[in-house]
Write a structure and sequence with these properties.
The protein is mostly helical and 456 residues long. It contains 17 helices and no strands.
């Protein structure tokens, strides 16, 4: 029976009409990634309508949150990889041990961010702002989010562990529960509605942490009360250094990859503050949250396209490899085109959701229109990154990510800030994406010339 199911899956990957195949494999991941985007943006909307200094503060604080996400998700990917490999080998004892070690790594990750939350947040905020109120808001928010980050760390670990068994539904429900609770409690705790006290910026952090706690609680119940292919047990547990090494061999590169965005944000926030434009930091924070609603579905599409390309590359079917790439590019362009239209047609409406006055509009409206020029080349670049990962050329994907966000974007942004003024910094985004796309084409043509010639 299992062999029959595997054959059907192989036949589906090799024979189903490409658009239907990609959509059927991508839509759950796209929905899940959109939920993650919602989680990120809700706090900013309510805080912006409560206190603009608070909105600037959480924009400055967001890179530390990104480092937390990178550490949690990156380590969990290492566990996911090890668990799935051991299940494939039918080595269930090792798969169970890997899942148990995964929860142990949560303690390592949490201890780092607990220390940061206790001792580093005030110096960190002081690096980017001299305004006492802004610094105080950022410290309040970060201290709560980092000191209680154990909930999100455990939830992410359980999500990736269950995904390693092929279960995609429960991880999506964990995220959905946390996002919904966050949305409900944000206005209650920020503005002090009903019998709830008015906590302001701290209220947003409390709502976020409470949502993460509920998501984690649901995840723990499902992990220990439901039957899965892996079982977590601490009975007679012994820490295995070799297993930890195996986890971090995959997890550490993933942490580094996902930290690139945080480094980019730190660099741009520094450029904006050095230019004396805290409002640009606020605009960038708003943009970064909103752009996730178009980029996250593309990353979900990535998860559906990658196995299709990988399977057909392994089957030496060049026609379907090209077909999957073309369909992925077209769908990604459609998604990104919606983002471009929104940024050009209603940038003022998007910004107004976050409160703010005329100064925010004066900087934000042209900034949104300029930055959105990067969306279409980014759509093509994401799909080429997917192609390179699917055929085992991960280094090319890494070079594209580093080039886009660090080697091109930050130097160009700095040069524009000192030569043409702070408003010109926004042009660094389309310049970086176009430069990265040129690099992608070079990598692709080399791939066609060398590897794809061997395909039938």
């Amino acid at each position: 029976m299992n062999e029959t199911k595997e054959m059907r899956q192989e036949n589906k990957m090799g024979t189903m009409p490409m658009v239907r195949l990609i959509l059927s494999m991508s839509l759950p991941a796209m929905f899940s990634m959109t939920i993650m985007a919602m989680y990120n943006v809700v706090d900013s909307i309510f805080i912006g309508n409560y206190d603009q200094a608070g909105l600037t503060a959480i924009s400055l604080a967001y890179p530390l949150q990104l480092f937390l996400i990178a550490a949690s998700v990156g380590t969990a990917i290492g566990v996911n990889s090890l668990v799935s490999r051991k299940l494939g080998e039918k080595n269930y004892d090792q798969a169970n041990a890997a899942a148990t070690h995964g929860l142990i790594t949560c303690a390592f990750t949490y201890s780092v961010f607990l220390l940061l939350g206790l001792f580093a947040v005030k110096p960190f905020m002081g690096l980017f702002s001299a305004d006492a109120h802004t610094v105080d808001c950022g410290v309040q928010y970060l201290r709560i989010v980092l000191c209680f980050s154990v909930f999100s760390t455990i939830q992410v670990m359980i999500e990736k562990t269950l995904q390693a068994t092929g279960n995609m539904i429960y991880p999506m429900l964990f995220q959905l529960l946390g996002a919904v609770i966050n949305i409900i409690f944000d206005p209650l705790l920020i503005f002090g509605i009903g019998f709830f006290p008015e906590f302001g910026v701290s209220g947003a952090a409390i709502a976020t942490v409470f949502g993460q706690f509920c998501g984690m609680l649901f995840a723990v119940i499902i992990l220990f009360r439901k039957n899965h292919e892996v079982k977590v047990s601490f009975k007679n547990f012994h820490l295995d250094g070799a297993m930890l090494k195996n986890i971090y061999a995959v997890g550490l590169p993933s942490i580094i990859m996902q930290s690139i965005g945080a480094i980019m944000m730190l660099g741009l926030n520094g450029i904006f503050m050095a230019a004396g434009s805290p409002v640009s930091v606020t605009v960038f924070g708003i943009y970064f949250k909103l752009q996730s609603f178009v980029f996250m579905p593309c990353f979900g599409l990535n998860q559906g396209v990658m196995p299709v390309i990988g399977y057909n590359y392994g089957a030496r079917n060049k026609q379907r490899v090209y077909s999957a790439l073309k369909c992925g590019i077209v769908i990604a362009l459609i998604i990104m085109s919606v983002g471009v239209l929104l940024m050009w047609l209603i940038p003022d409406k998007l910004i107004s959701m976050f409160g703010g006055g005329q100064e925010l509009m004066d900087v934000g409206v042209p900034a949104f229109r300029i930055v959105s020029l990067c969306f279409l080349p980014a759509a093509v670049g994401i799909m080429f990154t997917t192609l390179f990962q699917a055929v085992g050329k991960g280094i090319r994907s890494l070079l594209m990510s580093v080039g886009r966000q660090l080697l091109i974007l930050l130097p160009v942004a700095f040069l524009l800030s000192i030569t043409a003024g702070v408003q010109a910094v926004w042009f660094a985004f389309p310049i970086a994406e176009i430069g990265c796309l040129i690099l992608a084409f070079c990598f692709f043509f080399d791939l066609v010339k060398r590897d794809f010639r061997k395909l039938s």
